[in-house]
Amino acid sequence: MTTETEGPGGRQESGEPTLTIDELAARAGVTVRTVRFYGTKGLLPPPVIGPRRVGHYGREHLARLALIEELQRQGMTLAAIERYLGRLPADLSVRELGIQRAVVASWAPDTTETVTRGELDRRAGRPLADEEVERLVAMDVVRRDGDGFGVDAGLLRLGVELLDVPLSQETILAARTALIEHSRAAAHALSRLLRDAVAERDTQDVRSLSARMHPLVVQALLTAFQRSLKEELREWLDDQG
């Protein structure tokens, strides 16, 4: 039997599981009971058992809790969330889980909220240095709004992950520009195809079909992009060898 008790807070820069269940729940903004419940349902992987049989959790658990929270925000039932997570590869990295969360958040209309500095840290899942906040603002992930910050929930976690990527801000901004240009071109082409396909239908049918197609198209684009990126990187690495 796993004993989970309060322990010293560990830093997670190394990615090693260093959080007790109490600390994980606090960072994720849920209760310990909720964490245990998700574990029994198979929505969270089991903790790593450390000294004194204490269960330790890491960044993957935080990322999965954030994804579950986003799925709930979209109105999914627990059964639907189980099915969704069951279709994902079991070995998704923290960054890939963050991308999945961003995809899910994109299903809903734009939901920019104005939050305080303290709430910004909570949404980010960690305390942010002032310099990191400035980088998020420069990347257009966060916008200053009076004394608060305008935050798009679907972008914030992804932006926070980018803070740890060993690339210059200029490179990240250039990559963002390239992604926006090409994604808009793809969206325009797909939109024209869908408009032609439903040209004879009434407005209500068109809206219903659009709502159903949105998450499917976004997931298809993500999958196609991931495969293309892997192929490009593989070719580049082969050339380097």
From TrEMBL:
Q: Which InterPro entries has this protein been placed in? A: DNA-bd_dom_put_sf, MerR-type_HTH_dom, MerR_fam
| Superkingdom of origin | Bacteria
- What Pfam family is a match for this entry? MerR_1
Keyword Methyltransferase in the entry? The reply is no
Q: Does the keyword Magnesium apply?
A: no
Q: Which residues belong to the signal peptide in this entry?
A: none
State the UniProt keywords alphabetically.
Answer: DNA-binding
Output this protein's name: MerR family transcriptional regulator
Species of provenance:
Streptomyces virens
